[in-house]
Structure formats: C-alpha cells, structure tokens
Amino acid sequence: MIYLDNAATTQIKPEVLDAMIPYLQNNYGNAGSLYSLGSISKKAIAEARESVANLLHCKPEQVIFTSGGSESNNLAIFGLLDYFKQKRKTHIIYSPVEHDSVINAIDGFCKTYDFYSSETSVSSNGVVIPKYVKDKMRPTTGLVSVMYVNNETGSENEIMEIAKLCSENDVLFHTDCVQAAGTHTIDIDQIGCDLLSISSHKIHGPKGVGALFVRDTSLINPLIYGGHEQEFGLRAGTENVAGIVGFGKACEIVSQNLRENDIYMSMLKQVFYQCLAENLDKHGLKDVMHINGEPVVKHGKTLNIRFDGVDSETLILMLDAFGICISAGSACRSYESQPSHVLLAMGLDPDSARDSVRISFSVLNTLEEITSAAKQIAECVKLLSRKGG
C-alpha cells in the first residue's frame, strides 16, 4: 500500500507506540489517585505536557489536553462566552476556508447566544490577507479565527500579521495549527496568538488526543464539567494517559526533526508533481492537470490538484484498487456529495471542485513510493479522462 493521505491522519511511529504501551498495560493507574500507580500516570502526563509546550514554545500550564483538534477548536470558541459578555463583544470573524469544526462551532455559538459572525474574503489561492480581516472588524468584534495551514490545499495564511492586527484592536486571535504542526515552526510569541489548536494524529501520534494553547487561562470556561483538578479545571474527565504520553512523544520527535522533516516532505511533493506532469505529458494530457491553492514549490506536505473531465471519487476508488490512498479533501466530509467549501470559496465552480483530489505526504513515504504513485495516477487519468479516452 502507498499511503498519500497524511493530511487526514498519519501512521503512528513505532517510538510513539512503544512509549504508550506501558500505560496501557502495567502503568494503568488513574492520574487522579493518590497511590503510587496513580502518581506514575500523573507524572507521565506532566512530562508529556512539557513536550507539547516545547513544541509550541509556551508554558506547560498553558496547554490544555483535549480529545483532538475539533474539541480544541470548540473550546476556543464556546469557552470564551463569559469573556465576551464581560467585554460586551458580540461579533466573531473567521475565514470561509476554515475547518468544519471552526465554521460549525461559530455558527452554533452565534445561534445559541445571539451573536453574529462575518466571513473574510480569500484570494484565488485560498489565502486570507490581513486586510480582509481588518475590513470585517467592528467595535464589537471579540474573536478572529484563521488557520495557519489549510487542511485541503496546504495554503498558508499570514497569521502573524493577522495576530498583530487583532492585538492592536483588542481582539482575541485563535489559529488552528493542526495542519501546520510537523512542517512549520509554531512559536506562540512569534505568532502572537491567544489560542492555538493542534492534534496528535496529524504528527504520527495516536488518535483521540490534542491540545489547546491558551495564553490566559482565566479567560476560558470549560465545556465539560467534573473534576476540578483535571486539566486545571478546564477539561474534566479521566485523562487518556496512554494517548497523552503518545502525543507528548510525537511532539518530542517533531521538535527534534522539524526542519529536516519539512525539507524532506517538500522534496517529496515537488518530485511527485514533476513525475506526475512528465507522465501525463507522455499521454498528451499535461494540460488537463491544475493546482488548487499555493504553488507546488512552497513548503509543506499537501498538494490539491484537479484533472479536467476526471471525477475525483472514481479516481480515488480506481487508485484504491492499485493500493494507493489519496482523498477528495477533508476526511470529515468524505461521505458527502457536496463539493469542498474550501475550493468553492477560492472561486472554483462545483464541477471543478468535485474533480479535485488531495495528495499529502509524510516522512514515512519514500521516493520510490511517490514516483510509483505518480505513474499510476497518470495511467488512471489517461483511462478516465475524456481527452485521454
């Protein structure tokens, strides 16, 4: 199998699994217990929190463990209700290319608490320009949420400039960094954000665990109530010790190899694109391929492309028969017939959006894999393309 859907999830690394196993077997104590078995779990969580904090360049007490990116995004929005009331803020700004967990959370929050929201514009590459955010700001704006790297196209937003703009206008800034982790330096002071979301399973850690960075935890109220000692009182529930340990180990590995990983994945992406273009050209089909989003020379792990006259679902299923895994976009929407909201916001028509596929790489992919996949994709496009047929 050649797995090229690493924006959806990643294979857990052996070192991560090895770190988790003791907390699934012998060290299974509840971290809230006073006896030594519980203390072992409590210490393991503290060490993992340090590793996550090191990746984000923040303090450990600013890291709140959650069940993943979606919960982190929801906590960043719903958790601010009391702060918004105190500051008399009733307006939230977000981009139309955000992850569903941000868009739907903001929609639900506004409907529930009689707030209102505004979508920014995006460029043809799906990028949110700071001016687009400024144009939407009001005296009642309390929060801006703009992701660092888009989960479908890999496009990067100018989040440092957006954060600066928010700070100048006394507006909190949240950024979803789920797709940026592992390829981009994430430094909360350089970014200037107030809240930041990441997820374990996007960086070769286990599923079901993530974190929300909160610069000032006094501004957040929990979504889940229960134990006052769990996650500093901001996220109740018995801690997922093994998952948290695995997440911490994945963050530790990423921190040690960030630059090398980014260079390697960028190289894979560029070689793949070149090989795909060359093989399409052999079939007289080079002009049927189009990039959605940032140019392929930009760094990162994700490439979003479309082939004229080739239905993405048919292509994905055909490639699956050859043991190659790619996707049509966000895994959260993989069973929906609707075209990608990200691609539509970028100006693509519904048919072009449906013809688009996402290919995303990881450090576990090899050059042999990606060149083999590129050749097979070209063969499938030749069979499916109206021009090729």
Name the features.
7-stranded mixed beta sheet, 41% helix, Aspartate Aminotransferase, domain 2, Aspartate Aminotransferase, domain 1
Describe the secondary-structure layout.
Elements: E1 2-3, H1 14-20, H2 36-56, E2 63-66, H3 69-78, H4 81-87, E3 91-94, H5 100-113, E4 116-119, H6 130-136, E5 141-145, H7 159-168, E6 172-176, H8 188-191, E7 195-199, E8 210-214, H9 241-282, E9 289-292, E10 302-307, H10 312-321, E11 324-325, H11 341-345, H12 350-354, E12 356-360, H13 367-384
Parallel strand pairs: 1-11, 3-4, 3-5, 5-6, 6-7
Antiparallel strand pairs: 2-8, 7-8, 9-10, 10-12
Helix pairs in contact: 1-9, 2-9, 3-5, 9-13, 10-13
Describe the structure.
By secondary structure, this protein is α/β, with parallel strands linked by helices. The chain folds into 2 domains: 2-8 and 258-384, Aspartate Aminotransferase, domain 1; 14-252, Type I PLP-dependent aspartate aminotransferase-like (Major domain) (Aspartate Aminotransferase, domain 2). 41% of the residues lie in helices and 13% in strands. It has 13 helices and 12 strands. It has helices spanning 14-20, 36-56, 69-78, 81-87, 100-113, 130-136, 159-168, 188-191, 241-282, 312-321, 341-345, 350-354, 367-384; strands at residues 2-3, 63-66, 91-94, 116-119, 141-145, 172-176, 195-199, 210-214, 289-292, 302-307, 324-325, 356-360. Strand 3 (91-94), helix 5 (100-113) and strand 4 (116-119) form a beta-alpha-beta unit. Helix 2 packs parallel to helix 9 (241-282), helix 9 packs across helix 13 and helix 10 packs across helix 13. The chain is globular. The model has no long low-confidence stretch (mean pLDDT 94).
